Task: structure prediction
Amino acid sequence: MKYTKQYINEAAYDADNTRVKPNVSYLTEDDAVKYNPYSISGRDAKAGTIVLVKASTPSEKIFVPYESWDATTYSSYTPIGVVVVPFTHTPDSTVRIMSLKNMCLTNPNNGSTATDGSYSTISFYWGGYSTDAGLSKYTYVPNVSKTNQSSSTVGSQDWVRIPSNYVKGSTFSGGVESTLDEGSKYYVSNEDIRYGVSPYVTYNWKSYEALSIIDKTKNALLDYDGSGNTATILALDNAVSTAWQTASTITNNSGATNVHAPAQCCWRYSTLGTSQGQWYLPACGELAYLPARYADINEALTKLMAADSALAIRLWRNDPSVQDPSGSVYGNWLWSSTEFSANYARIVGVNRGNVYDNGKNGSNTSNRVRAFAALTV
Result:
């Protein structure tokens, strides 16, 4: 089937007429999908946008808002990730996307959508307990006053709670979830707790001022180099052995030896259109984008999961219908590649926005791993 020039020109403009897509006389059916109104530029992709590739042209990525995606329209395309950090917020010309699956010790190349109690395969130690990984130590996160959010006075804590748009006002563990105040300068949580600064105020507004007031070299929310961190961590492992690069399973080690399962599994992971070594264990500053747009990101994952349970697994929700058999949850806590000390690394509670330091030898049914990749757009 071909589509006429008139068809594509009608679909070529955004609502505000600010962007025009290629002006061609005829488009194949595949191109019509690529350039239809539902597909957007990677530079315009907000958190929750689904990234897809086609087998015939796997190097080419298209970006579709999750609200517009459906399995029928995009039946010839394979979803490979969801946008977490938009182009306008990255220090380079990339968007940062998250894997659709949890990393998996017994299936490191493909990840896992397990929800049936296979916790030992998707729950991780960070590894290398009491061993300095040689990374910068990010020991603080910024916090501001709940009653004076517009003040430039910013303090620092070893942990904080940054705002989450996880079901505003919903009941959680006997408490009330934070409601978001997007009108405030620093966009902080309204809960009676350590008020963390969200990095993601709007698509075009990042909290640079608040994030930069405390020592930048120690601010965990300013560590965006998950790729570099992962390379440094894996250099330690490779100095001991490179067998993990091809082993059928990854060793989950809590001890002091240089075995870092989260970083190894991320490196091993690949999808159609991406290769091993392209995915990495995200830094704390990258994971910190999940809470602020948690609802959108999780809706994208939920929609993909509903279409094909082998394709994606959603993040945690406070809903008994999506809890696993033990009463634990889907990826409530995600490991970062940010090091706090020789004994601790940063971990982010993605639904409530908790940014903590956790023992590298700490593991339970919620300590999960999602891989990130940086796509140039």
In short: The longest helix spans residues 226-240. The chain has nine helices and 18 strands.
